[in-house]
Design a protein that fits this description.
12% of the residues lie in helices and 30% in strands. The chain is mainly beta. The longest helix is centred in the C-terminal third of the chain and has 25 residues, at 192-216.
């Protein structure tokens, strides 16, 4: 008797809206793709990609901008309820883990100037990059233009507005770097008072140096 894999999508060779798919990909039938317009190679999956139930892949108008597209690297797993926007470009590397209900939003709406009605304003677009081996935790939100470095971790529920360097852990709303995966503490940003104190110490040292120089002469 063959072992049953409950809750794991079955292998599939094709899925509606996906342009190119590698070998041994698993996509749940409930995964939906939102796209319109004619353009090929916009949504591409490498070998062994798994996309779980109720995930939404959003491209919108695929001819609106050359940056539109989603590419997912080999063996990456997108857990249930994900929302992946490729409207501004989305590049996900190999062996990436994307937790349940995570949202990667590569596009938005301009809010300054223009029409008072937000829906009438222009679409803003900026590519999101998730490098190999990274982990984006459950419910995390990654905004347009962000790069998540190789092997970096975004904690569950984090709101990421800035890049996360390779090997670092980011957490919070908004997210901040808290440590490296090797355990070293990430230094807190210096306060304005601390910066002023540093400049004062440097200034005093320089004054002392030049005063002593004049006395030697």
């Amino acid at each position: 008797m063959t072992d049953m894999l409950l809750g794991i999508p079955a292998f599939t060779a094709s899925h509606a809206g996906v342009d190119r798919m590698g070998a041994e990909c698993r996509i749940d039938p409930s995964v939906s793709v939102m796209r319109f317009g004619q353009r090929s190679d916009v949504l591409c999956l490498a070998d062994g990609v798994s996309i779980y139930a109720q995930t939404r892949l959003v491209l919108g108008d695929v001819v609106a901008d050359p940056c539109v597209g989603i590419r997912i690297g080999a063996r990456t797993i997108v857990n249930v309820g994900g929302y992946l926007s490729g409207e501004g470009g989305l590049e996900i590397g190999e062996d990436v883990l994307i937790g349940p209900h995570a949202k990667l939003l590569s596009a938005g709406h301009a809010i300054d100037g223009g029409d008072v009605v937000i829906a009438r304003n222009r679409i803003t677009r900026a590519r999101i990059v998730v490098e190999d081996g990274a982990w984006i935790g459950a419910g995390a939100i990654v905004l347009e233009g962000v790069t998540i470095g190789r092997g970096a971790v975004v904690a569950a529920g984090a709101l990421v507005r800035q890049d996360v360097p390779a090997g670092m852990v980011a957490a919070g709303m908004p997210a901040r770097l808290i440590r490296s995966r090797r355990g070293e503490a990430w230094p807190e940003p210096e306060s304005e008072a601390a910066k002023a104190s540093w400049f004062q110490r440097v200034g005093a040292g320089l004054k002392s140096f030049f005063r002593e120089g004049r006395e030697v002469k």
